[in-house]
Amino acid sequence: MEITPEQQPLLRNPNFRWMTCGNIISNLGDQFTLIALPWLVLKMSTDPLQLGLVIAIMSIPRALFILIGGALVDHYSPKRVLMLTKYINVLLLGVLSALVLTNHLTMPLVYLLALGIGLASAFSIPSGSSLLPNVIPSSQLDAANSIQMSVRQLAMLLGPVLAGLLIAGAGNHPSAGAISDALGLGLAFALNCLSFALSAWTLHQVDVQFLPKTSARQPIFRAVGEGLQMVWRDQMLRTMFLYWGVIAFVVGGITQVGLPLLANSQLHSAAALGLLLGAHGTGTLLGMLGSTQGRKLRVGTLGRTLLLIDGVIGIIFMPLGLIHTAWQGIALLLPMGLLAGLMQITVITWIQRRVPAAMLGRTMSIMMFVFIGTP
User: Fold this and answer.
1) Are the CB atoms for 271 and 164 separated by under 8 Å?
2) Taking Cα atoms as reference points, which of 187, 154, 155 lies closest to residue 168?
3) 3-state secondary structure of 267
4) Alpha-carbon torsion 161, 163, 169, 172, what sign?
């Protein structure tokens, strides 16, 4: 990734370097669980409804509590909330890895651990997405978001492929009656556990310098209501969030359940699932790298451009269920990621600059609720 003149001061900032290093580690580790958890469920049960149930157990509590998470972030600071979630994830993934490797895992325990992971993410998502404006000045948000989101997408490119190869290459656990691919699955969860521990250490080194002015202490639910009212009163924010809710409802659930099922039933490999997700991550990374041309690529307003891009993505998405080889899926998911990546940095920066800093945690939690709570 070429470093622009605007990005050079950021890379000399030790706080931003620590934050970026932690994001690389954490995002890469998350991709291992993203591949391993649905694959684990499919190996423990041949019923695809079980996979949908596990995803629901993670998603519904996350959706219900993410707005509360945003309010807590605004009150206690993103760093404090994010540190706590990292410690919780170390515990949850360590237990999950040990249960898989020792052949003591049952579906009720999968449900319980999935619930814990979902609840933790309800607080880590708004805290992670709100931390950046506390670390750097507003004038550098464009350059910082470009680096941070490109790092995340690079992890989404490499992580699924590495996870798929690990699971496929580790072989079966030697214990009799063990889950198929148990050794690779256990190692994948263990690596994600280690990534949370390391990223907690890097986050500890970050010195928050741009603290927003906090309002007087108020009940959590009143703070959530205040955030919802602020977004609803802003016509542009309200329109954007309602639109994204429709997109997430139509596409999100299908993708979360459909891609693992597609890889299992038609491509028969965890490595294939990694390649599919890696292709989408590659496209998104390329789109983000080209996002500096976003204004030149606009067709009228930002909203009109988003509608056009989403329309093209929808056309490409339609034949995905008919593929029979990994390269066919790659050929579809790569351009879908490319188009999505073109506008992501522009949209995130637009929100960060539009919303007061003291309301940013709640606003980002509402945005994430739209994307992860409506599928």
Assistant:
1) yes
2) 187
3) helix
4) negative
DSSP code string of 143-176? HHHHHHHHHHHHHHHHHHHHHHHHHHHH---SST
Report the run of H or E that residue 342 belongs to, with start and end.
helix 326-354
CA dist 289 → 267, 344, 351 (Å)? 31, 11, 20
Q: For residue 26, what are its two tokens?
A: 């954490």
Tell me the residue length of the chain.
375
Indicate the range of 45-54, 181-190, 261-270, 324-333 predicted with least confidence: 261-270
Q: Which of 8, 19, 5 has its CA nearest to residue 205?
A: 19
Answer for the pair 360, 352: CB distance below 8 angstroms, yes or no.
yes
β strands within the chain, DSSP E = none
pLDDT of 86: 95
At 263, the amino acid letter reads A
For residue 294, what are the CA distances in angstroms to 1, 84, 161, 327, 364? 17, 36, 29, 29, 22
C-alpha atoms less than 13 angstroms from C-alpha of 258 in its C-beta half-sphere:
15
- Distance CA(221)–CA(313), nearest Å, equals 37
Taking 3-state DSSP, the helix, strand and coil percentages for the chain, each rounded to the nearest 5, stand at 85, 0, 15
For tokens 């994830």, name the residue.
89
Q: Which of 337, 368, 335, 350 is nearest to 303 (CA)?
A: 350
Place of tokens 């290093």: 21
153-156: which pairs have CB atoms within 8 A and are 24 or more residues apart? Answer: 153/281, 153/284, 153/285, 153/288, 153/341, 154/24, 154/281, 154/285, 155/24, 155/27, 155/28, 155/30, 155/31, 155/281, 156/27, 156/31, 156/277, 156/278, 156/280, 156/281, 156/284, 156/285
Tens-place pLDDT, residues 64-108: 788 788 778 777 778 888 999 999 999 999 999 999 998 899 999
Token pair for 118:
């979902």
